[in-house]
Amino acid sequence: MNDTRLDIYVCVKQVPDSTKVEVxxxxxxxxxxxxxxxxxxxxxxxxxxxxxxxxSLVDRGASSSICAVTMGPPQADAVLKEAIxxxxxxxxxxxxxxxxxxDVLATSYALSQGIRRLARNAGAETTIAKxxxxxxxxxxxxxxxxxxGATGTENGMSSGPAAAPLRGSVLVICGKQTTDGxxxxxxxxxxxxLGIPHITNVRSIPDVTAGSLVVESExxxxxxxxxxxxxxxxxxxxxxxxxxxxxxxxKVALPAGAVIxxxxxxxxxxxxxxxxxxxxxxxVVRIFPPPVEGQHEVWTGNDGDLAGRIYGKLxxxxxxxxxx
Amino acid sequence: MTRxxxxxxxxADPVAAARLCPFGAIELAEVPxxxxxxxxxxxxxxxxxxxxxxxxxxAFEAVEDGAPRPVADKTAYRGVAVYVEYDEDRLHPVSLExxxxxxxxxxxxxQRLVCVLAGHGVAAAAEELLHYGVDEVRxxxxxxxxxxxxxxxxxxxxxxxxxxxxxxxxxxxxxVGRSLAPRLAARFGTGLTADCTSLDIREDTDLDQIRxxxxxxxxxxxxxxxxxxxxxxxxxxxxxxxxxxxxxRGEVVRATLPEGARSSAIRVLAVEKxxxxxxxxxxxxxxxxxxxxxxxxxxxxxxxxxxxLGAQVAGTRPxxxxxxxxxxxxxxxxxxxxxxxxxxxFGVSGSVQFVAGMGGSQTVFAVNSDGEAPIFRVASYAVxxxxxxVLPALIAAxxxxxxxxxxxx
Lengths: 324, 409
Hints:
Chain A is 25% helix and 26% strand. Chain A has 324 residues and is α/β, with parallel strands linked by helices.
């Protein structure tokens, strides 16, 4: 392992451009305004943080390489190209029909497996494209792998032997959350699957060396400054810096093979029972419109009664805790 | 392996069928030599089964092949666990709310409610929990737990879960909870449902979890029925905290840190108390003064109400221009855009420029003596009354309520 180089992996996601999603009450069908998609806005800050770290390392004579990683359908490579236009060195798209239907656990596992695969190849980048991973232009469906029977464990999930912790000068950066899932859970789960420590709510990165970084993070009522050594994962807040715009020059210069694609069979653990809907312990059994909020009432009466009604409603909505 | 199979011959209109999918995962593929495209299920499929239910009869079929998916022995996991957070010098209120909810879930299935508390010098806090209706508190009190570092805390949480084997684990949706819960859910290879707004429990201890999805426009009902334990996080102020009872219930069990739990790749260099100043944009509660206020001194009432609610004070443009309120506290197109959970306005007419800055507010109370004021069109509660009568009475009611007095609404 070359200790003067830091390999940074930034997890990004393509999300719907509009949050205006509604349930048609009569048919129960989800209605979306158009199908436009974009990079999850929080991920732009993760990319910016990575780019600044790289610049800072290069200034000190060290080096760094940034790879944007996403999982999604083939068209999700658009966010990887955008990441490269911002300054990332390359992008990796995890795509496979067997990843479909992934919840947080299956998504995190797939991303962690992708990062493991890339980190293993980091020293020999040229081999990965020639290896089983293929350039993104290739669009034919993958041949199905033999379906392995899931092995049961005591708590109901199939799991292979515990994987060894990731080693080396590796930093994984995630955004705070996504605008569609909104769970903010994928980062810590990836860290767990990689066997590396993590810090969330990072608002600034005052220092970085080839071996560690210093971060400031928000805790309830506190700001903590901590040093953590590589490999590790951080999830960043918007405070890390205003994201730069994608460069048109970089778009034109986008080299063939800058975005590569990995499928299930390219991963260290190709057991389909751990991915997609089969690897997802949570199941959405129903979606429904939220309770009607467009509440509108007109209250009249004497001032004292009106105040009493406001008080009663504020208490009912739990807005009076601070006064207790 | 679960998959959706398309029976092309049953699809009369492939383009319409492709449109069924809210995730755009039904793809139209050209077939050489055929004018009719073929439908394929792409990687965007979320298995919502809408196509199965709403598509042409029989055209989309959900198929399970291969070995059946393993299911946990649910009788081996019993009870409800709550991860209790000790924040600075107090039990975090969300933890008490979870204890309240956890108690009712545990009672419903006739099982135990067990809490875990980790930290340094938190023994008194563990004792305090016995006043809130828990059966047991596992206490990990160790200098290694003084600061929140993920490895020791995760090790302690894991140790607790292996010892107690609960069916369900409730964690507060705080910075710490959102860092710790997913870590443990991944360690146990189980499901985590974030930011639940409603929780119920079935006889077999499956949790009925409801949470907002897609930016809050849709609610999703989620089950974790194959694996144990089930993790759920809940934000502050979703559930009710139980009242503290004088009597004590349950016991505190001291536990020791598991082997190797003290090591961490994280070195805490400094910890600084955060000044609790919240910008207007981040404020969850805002009280707004408008030009219905007759003189500057009357702002004191608005400030008093804000103080009682823990709310921020804001103003409309006329008050900013008059110099009564700091320009950083102006709501509107030329000021700040706010999106609080609660916005109360007093003497605000509701100009277009003001409304543009507060349209995202969740619940709006507007007090104005003019029944035709435009603010009433966007208010959840349009209160037609004189602020000089309503505001002092409201302040008095809150003060009386805070002292435990009954106030008839």
